[in-house]
Structures are given as structure tokens and as C-alpha cells.
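Following up on my earlier message about guanosine-5'-triphosphate. Here are the inputs again, as you asked, copied directly from the submission form:
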Amino acid sequence: MNIKSAEFVISNTDYKSCPQHDKPEYAFIGRSNVGKSSLINMLTNRKGLAMTSSTPGKTLLINHFIINDEWYLVDLPGYGYARRGKDEREKLRIIIEDYVLERTEMTALFVLIDSRHQPQQIDIEFMEWLGENNIPFSIVFTKADKLKTGKLLMNIDHYKQKMLESWEELPPIFITSAEDQRGREEVLAYIEEVNKQLLITNY
Ligand code: GTP
Ligand code: MG
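Thanks, got it. Here's what our run produced:
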């Protein structure tokens, strides 16, 4: 898919204040610092579109971006940043959970997982919570450039095995790097396909 335009629209603390629209909306969620904002910049090919930081806890709001005037990308705050105070963490948890459960405009959700690490309890529990709430999702492994190919494939295979302990089937899986643009075409092709399906079912 060709990205002709990508613009920031608005930031909100609450899903209720987010723009109402009838276009597909794709949201990115995952642990703080996993690379959500970087992935949005990589997909759109716009370096400073979403704000990134090497310090976790950069994105604290629900950020909407409009792409090609046709669909939205949503950058969400990360979950689980331990150094943030308990109250702040709880506030972010509510922002994220309300968005995921109540945002009827949300077409698809991408859960980002750092490809360098062994399966983390917090991510596994988050995906189980999605399952309990019947929210379909895809997995996007990030930071693939940081590992040698053998180790990367081993980690991903291990992750799949771990998922299959509690899931009957695996969700769509993408392997990405904001650094070398790996996975960009695959994620955009997936979005394009979902957009097409929606157009067909809406007529
Ligand atoms: P919060 O907004 O704090 O939840 O974080 P985030 O998930 O939006 O992460 P962000 O995109 O800000 O990236 C965090 C750090 O990881 C930054 O220093 C990025 O440069 C780095 N990073 C993100 N993606 C990649 C990647 O694919 N490869 C490499 N090498 N670094 C990455
Ligand atoms: Mg961010």
C-alpha cells in the first residue's frame, strides 16, 4: 500500500472524546517502550509523526492519525511501566482497557511484543484478557534488527509454542523492525486487505 498522506489528528485521555468516524481504525498496544510509536512512524514513513523516546512511558494519551484520508492509526499508551507510580499506572490501565472494550470504531488491534525477550507474563495475561473479552488481535514482534536471524526465529517459535499452551490457534503474526523497515509491507498489506473486506461487507 502506498502511503500518500499521514497526519496527526488529535490526542485524548478518554475514548469518549475520540473522533467519531466511519473509517477503519487500527490500534497499537503493548508494553511501554516496546516500539508502538516507532512502528507507526515506520509504517507511515514519517519520522516524527508519533513521538518516541528511549525512556518508557512516552505516550500517555490516545493519539489518532489519519492515513490517506481513508483510515486511522491509533497510538496508545504502553502498559506495565513499573517505575510509574501506582495511581498513574492505574489511570493508564483504565484508558487502555476502556479504549479496547468500548471503542466501537476500532477495526483491528495489534499487540506488540519485543522479539528479544522470552514470553512475559504481563503480555500473556493481556492477550488472555483480550480473549476473555472476545477482542481479536494480531501479534507484531518488534526490534527484530536487534537479534541475529537464528535467535530471532528461535524466540518467535518459542513464543508460538507458549501461546499454543492456552490458545487453539495462533493469531496473525508479523515480524518487524522500525530500524530496517522489516515487516512494513506485510503489515500494510494486511491493513489494506481488511480495509477492502470492510468495503465489500458495507455494500
Ligand atoms: P511508550 O510510548 O513509552 O509506551 O513506548 P513505545 O512503545 O511507543 O516505544 P517507542 O516507539 O517510543 O520506542 C522505544 C525505544 O525503542 C526508542 O528508543 C526506539 O528508538 C526504540 N525502538 C523502537 N522500535 C525499534 C526497532 O525496531 N529497532 C530498534 N533497534 N529500536 C527500536
Ligand atoms: Mg509511544
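One observation from looking it over: The pocket of guanosine-5'-triphosphate (ligand 1) is lined by residues 32-38, 52-54, 56-59, 77-78, 142-143, 145-146, 177-179 (CB under 6 Å). Hope that helps, and feel free to reply on this thread.
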